[in-house]
Amino acid sequence: MALAVTAPVSIGGADRAACLASLTLRSRSRRFKPRSPACTSSVDGRASFDIEAKNLFVEVRGDTGLVVPVLKNCSIRIPQGQLWMLLGPNGCGKSTLLKASLYGLMRPSRGQMRVAQPKSFVFQNPDHQVVMPTAEADVAFGLGRLQLTQEEVRDRVWRSLKAVGMENYLQRPIQTLSGGQKQRVAIAGALAETSRVLLLDELTTFLDETDQVGVLEAVRRVVAGPPSVTSLWVTHRLEELNYADGAAYMENGRVVLSGSVADVMDYINLKKAEL
Ligand SMILES: Nc1ncnc2c1ncn2[C@@H]1O[C@H](COP(=O)(O)OP(=O)(O)OP(=O)(O)O)[C@@H](O)[C@H]1O
């Protein structure tokens, strides 16, 4: 069955019922209760979003010097205090959208991007981010520019490492940590800077299954807070959707579907079935 999706939609009704029978991917049992992807969390009852892109365009200059559009009228909204996964085929613009969320890494040419502050980006390869000799020194590194006492720094570092389950590794030389443990140190660094938004780019690419689950569970704990954090995670791994409150799917520079994990899974399975 062909499904033409040109704007953010959710799949429902007869289409959905007809497709469910052919699905091959089912959600594994979840270890947490996802929040409603359409939740409202502000005091006045209106929806509150920590990440919001509206009709965003991003262009880059290609190797030949020509300007290449990468994001084309891309829109997305991530509710406060939720973990959302961003999926889509290679080259559709996922990382670009994440980088556009951090002005400076990639500046939109048109449209609006609003991301709550402070915000942090965690890279795919922790070796590009975790640079100090010990876990403690690395998490403390970003705090140097703040006017904090030594005791405050120590306290923040410990609390941040504890949030990702790494409080027993304070003095551990970085080169002796696994990839997943380094990723958790990188996340702790963002938390120590009291980041309200975490932008996460394929964090588990280089990790085995144990480390993958360790990082996913750490991010879930961090998102739950307190204080709660909002997170957008780019992934190709469908099993990671089981940890998300919501999901968005991109194609050709724009978000074509955004909402519940079940809807995005259904859409991906539909696409697989069409191949
Ligand atoms: N600085 C740049 N110069 C030239 N092309 C770029 C640049 N940045 C991104 N692109 C192109 O924009 C497109 C989208 O790239 P992006 O990395 O955002 O995709 P992606 O969906 O994250 O891909 P993947 O899943 O493979 O990581 C690709 O075709 C990429 O080659």
UniProtKB/TrEMBL annotation:
Q: Which SMART domains match?
A: AAA
- CDD domains membership: ABC_cobalt_CbiO_domain1
Instruction: Name the Pfam families on file.
Output: ABC_tran
A single GO BP term for this record reads: transmembrane transport
- Give me the Gene Ontology terms describing cellular component: chloroplast envelope; membrane
Q: Where is the ABC transporter domain?
A: 51-275
Q: Which UniProt keywords apply?
A: ATP-binding, Nucleotide-binding, Transport
In the record, what terms sit under GO molecular function? ATP binding; ATP hydrolysis activity
> Hey, what's the signal peptide range on this chain?
none
UniProt keyword Transport present: yes
SUPFAM superfamilies from the UniProt entry: P-loop containing nucleoside triphosphate hydrolases (SSF52540)
Q: What is this protein called?
A: ABC transporter domain-containing protein
Query: What organism, scientifically named, is this protein from?
Result: Selaginella moellendorffii
